[in-house]
């Protein structure tokens, strides 16, 4: 039977989903509260991981080990890396990588974790497609893009840093957890997708934009996740 692990880094990314679910069990592990139950007629475990790659990786591993989830979805907000992708729009992952890994000195491409055998972790194609089509149904006024998502332990709010990331990785958006969730899902052979709504443009305006738009953006992404669940 399918059981979907849903991770949001911050409370505002999962609070609406938690409010709508029927909770059967609460489990605390690694200082994170895992809520198991049903959402939109689907078996789910919803959790706030905390911000950054380490919290996200710990959280995803617990979902695999202790809850035996069959799929993982990460919902949240991100900074846009493309001019045409605006605040409020949605990016759904095709693949995901760590933009802050650099072992080029031993011949690895920038972003590749040594000895993993891949630069980017491929998202599940069916989940990606489903997220994009669900967005058209549930958020018809919002554009949904399919593309690479890049993550690092860094809030990108500087035009030059943004440009370097764009030219190195051709990402569609940047955030701080997706690659770790993808990495853990990849190692555990669990299909995953990262869904992010844009809260800022990851440039010098991000410090101003992010606080104004994070709540609405997080809600767009969560609404889409809720809608796609029964079709997984
Ligand atoms: N306001 C929070 C910190 C948020 S950090 C506090 O004060 O505690 C930003 C969060 O949103 C991360 O979870 C990250 O995944 C995402 N994010 C949004 N825009 C981003 C950007 N420009 N660069 C990196 N992460 C971004």
Description:
The protein has 232 residues and is α/β, with parallel strands linked by helices. 36% of the residues lie in helices and 30% in strands. It has a single domain (4-231), classed as Rossmann fold, CATH 3.40.50. The chain is built from 6 helices and 10 strands, in the order E-H-E-E-E-H-E-E-E-H-E-H-E-H-E-H. A 5-stranded mixed beta barrel has the order 5-9-8-6-10, surrounded by 4 helices. It is globular, with a radius of gyration of 16 Å. The mean pLDDT is 98.
Task: Tell me the layout of helices and strands.
Elements: E1 4-8, H1 11-20, E2 22-29, E3 32-39, E4 42-48, H2 53-67, E5 71-80, E6 90-98, E7 121-122, H3 125-138, E8 144-151, H4 159-169, E9 173-175, H5 178-187, E10 192-200, H6 206-228
Parallel strand pairs: 1-4, 1-5, 5-10, 6-8, 8-9
Antiparallel strand pairs: 2-3, 3-4, 5-9, 6-7, 6-10
Helix pairs in contact: 1-6, 2-5, 3-6
Bound molecules: S-adenosyl-L-homocysteine.
State the CATH architecture. 3-Layer(aba) Sandwich
Q: Which sequence of strands runs across the widest sheet? A: 5-9-8-6-10
> CATH first level: which class?
Alpha Beta
Distance between the termini: 11 Å
CATH topology, by name, is Rossmann fold
Number of strands: 10
Structural class based on helices, strands and sheet pairing:
alpha/beta
Helix content: 25-40%
Average pLDDT confidence is: 98
Write down the overall geometry: globular
Radius of gyration: 16 Å
Largest sheet report: 5 strands, mixed, barrel
**Which spans of ≥5 residues are poorly predicted at pLDDT below 50?**
none
Into which percentage range does the β-strand content fall? 25-35%
Order of helices and strands: EHEEEHEEEHEHEHEH
């Amino acid at each position: 039977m399918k059981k979907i692990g849903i991770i949001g880094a911050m409370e505002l990314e999962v609070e609406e989903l938690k409010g709508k679910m029927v909770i059967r069990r609460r489990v605390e592990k690694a200082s994170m509260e895992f809520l198991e139950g049903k959402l939109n007629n689907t078996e789910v475990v919803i959790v706030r991981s905390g911000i950054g790659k380490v919290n996200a990786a710990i959280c995803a591993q617990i979902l695999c080990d202790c809850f035996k989830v069959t799929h993982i979805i990460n919902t949240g907000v991100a900074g846009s890396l493309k001019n045409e992708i605006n605040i409020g729009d949605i990016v759904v992952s095709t693949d995901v990588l760590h933009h802050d890994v650099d072992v080029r000195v031993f011949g690895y491409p920038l972003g590749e974790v040594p000895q993993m055998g891949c630069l980017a972790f491929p998202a599940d194609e069916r989940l990606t497609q489903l997220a994009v089509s669900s967005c058209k149904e549930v958020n018809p006024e919002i554009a949904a893009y399919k593309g690479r998502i890049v993550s690092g332990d860094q809030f990108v709010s500087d035009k030059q840093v943004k440009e370097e990331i764009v030219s190195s990785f051709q990402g569609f958006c940047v955030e701080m957890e997706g690659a770790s969730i993808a990495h853990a899902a990849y190692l555990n052979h669990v299909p995953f997708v990262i869904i992010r709504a844009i809260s800022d443009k990851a440039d010098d305006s991000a410090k101003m934009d992010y606080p104004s738009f994070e709540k609405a953006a997080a809600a767009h992404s969560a609404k889409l996740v809720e809608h796609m669940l029964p079709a997984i």
